Amino acid sequence: MNAVSSGPNLVQSPRLGFATGEEIAEQQGGLLRQHIEFLAANSPYYRQRFSELGLDARDIRTLTDLPRLPLTGKEDLARHAAKMIAVPDVDLVDLCLTSGTTGPAVALQQSRRDLERVAYNEETAFRMAGVSADDRVLLAVALDRCFMAGLAYFLGLARIGALAIRAGTALLPALAELVLKQRPTAIVGVPTLLLRLAADLEAQGVDVAALGVRRMICIGEPVRGADLKLSRLGGKLAEAWGATVFGTYASTEMATAFTDCEYGIGGHLLPDLMIVEIVDEDGLPLPPGEVGEVVATPLQVTGMPLLRFRTGDLARLHSEPCACGRQTPRLGPIVGRKAEMLKVKGVTVFPQAIHTALQDLEGLAGCCLEVRSDYEQSDLLTVVVGLPDGNGDAASIADVISARTRVRPEVRIVTPDIWREMTWRSGRRKPQLFFDYRAQKLRSSS
Ligand SMILES: [Zn+2]
Asked: Average pLDDT for residues 116-124, to the nearest whole number?
């Protein structure tokens, strides 16, 4: 096999996070050069972009050259996926579909080395959360349906030598039975689902906190607030299971996941696998510590390598020292999605802020948001709140939201069962809490 298409050997530096900032920047610069050379030689899409920009791959030497490189949007990925494949078809071994939360699902294809890379990534991430060969880890995430995450977790655990219990996204009674019979010491899953699992077990008279589950590795929903402290959801989960809760941030496009270390103050970046930038609306780099869009350059990917991918997620990097000794910046919780930004009567608000405003509401089963456009170019927001028997005072709930966010939405109260029916659609990995009807309005009016 020719050396160019299969790429160089995977660089694995699990201790690099503990090196000095300079050493990290130097190694990342080297991996970036390698990545750009690989793109220029093998990716028809990026070869064309570089040529259009008059960019010579050899001009990119260090991380400070990053802003000279083109950004890649979700729409580029959707339109040009086929031209982004950078290895011969015969080298592709796995097809993943993106979640499709904010656009059509895109097929991302992985080479055998990409699988090795995600396995190494998850091994590093699990070790950061303290998982070891002694652990029995319940994977309450889908391993099929072309999802990348479940497969990556399994491969990572196999590298560690931990026992994987591949529960998948089975129904709650089946998950509960696995927990009781197989006694996992760690669980990977979506927080709201794991909270429901705890409630189901409690209803059977089980002392959930005494089951011996020590770690909950949470995916899909943030478990920390902007202050990096556990959110209400994260706190309830930790209490219910008597476990340490770890947040993660990952996406199929990034082919990379970050996990909190034991100090839980944001996900440490893995410097040999990814370069993260935070940019403003125009794609320009923001000063350290400011909230902006997460732009990811996944290093060492060969199947469908991406450059400066705009995730649409808004977050900030934290660079104050962490007690664990790693020197890498940490990515804070996602404060919102660019596509979910709402503008209600001139005030900008993200769905996450509404969820946070209501998290202390007595008896809250959950809430979700519906947004429509009105003629004033303002968004019309309805917050649907699940409360016992569908009873509650909509006006006072609107007051709470207004006091915290300066936006006063319409509030509709439903029973917890109706809320679950609305939000847990079959085949989805997490509840859908945001329903955007703004595009339909545009279509129907045109
Ligand atoms: Zn740390």
From this structure: 97
CB atoms within 10 A of CB 199: 12
Sequence ranges of the domains in the chain = 9-59+69-335, 341-445
Q: Say how many Å lie between the CA of residue 219 and the centre of ligand 1.
A: 19
Encode burial over 332-360: b for 16+ CB neighbours within 10 A, e otherwise: bbbbbbbebebebeeeebbbbbbbbbbee
Q: How far is the CA of 390 from the centre of ligand 1 (A)?
A: 43
Kindly give the distance from the C-alpha atom of residue 94 to the centroid of ligand 1, in angstroms, as a whole number.
32
Q: What is the 3-state secondary structure (H, E, C) of 221-252?
A: CCCECCCCCECHHHHHHHHHHCCEEEEEEEEC
pLDDT at site 2? 42
Residue 99 has pLDDT above 80, yes or no: no
Cα of 218 to ligand 1 centre, how many Å?
17
Going from the Cα of 263 to the center of ligand 1, the distance in angstroms, rounded, reads: 6
Cβ–Cβ < 8 Å for 140, 167? yes
> Count of CB atoms within 10 A of residue 50's CB?
21
- Predicted pLDDT of residue 103: 64
Q: Residue 158, CB half-sphere, CA atoms under 13 Å: how many?
A: 11
CATH hierarchy code of domain 9-59+69-335: 3.40.50.12780
> Cα separation of 310 and 295, whole Å?
5
> Of 180 and 434, which is predicted with more confidence?
180
The Cα–Cα gap between 32 and 274 comes to 9
Q: What is the pLDDT of residue 346?
A: 82
Nearest by Cα to 194 from 144, 130, 155, 245: 245
Considering the four listed CATH numbers 3.40.50.10090, 3.90.180.10, 3.30.300.30, 3.40.50.11890, the one that applies to the domain covering 341-445 is 3.30.300.30
Q: Do domains 9-59+69-335 and 341-445 have the same CATH topology?
A: no
pTM of this prediction?
Answer: 0.84
Give the model's pLDDT for residue 1. 41
Q: Which residues contact 81 (CB under 8 A, 6 or more apart)?
A: 106, 107, 108, 304
Q: DSSP label at 260?
A: B
Distance 259 CA to ligand 1 centre (A): 10
Measured distance CA(269)–CA(272) in Å, rounded: 9
Question: How far is the centre of ligand 1, averaged over its atoms, from the C-alpha of 339 (Å)?
Answer: 30
pLDDT digits (tens, 9 = 90+) for 221-257: 889 988 899 988 899 999 999 999 999 998 889 999 9
Report the side by side order of strands in the sheet with 434-436: 410-414, 379-386, 366-373, 434-436
Cα–Cα nearest to 106, from 150, 146, 142: 146
Kindly give the distance from the C-alpha atom of residue 328 to the centroid of ligand 1, in angstroms, as a whole number: 8
Q: Give residue 301 CA to ligand 1 midpoint distance, Å.
A: 25
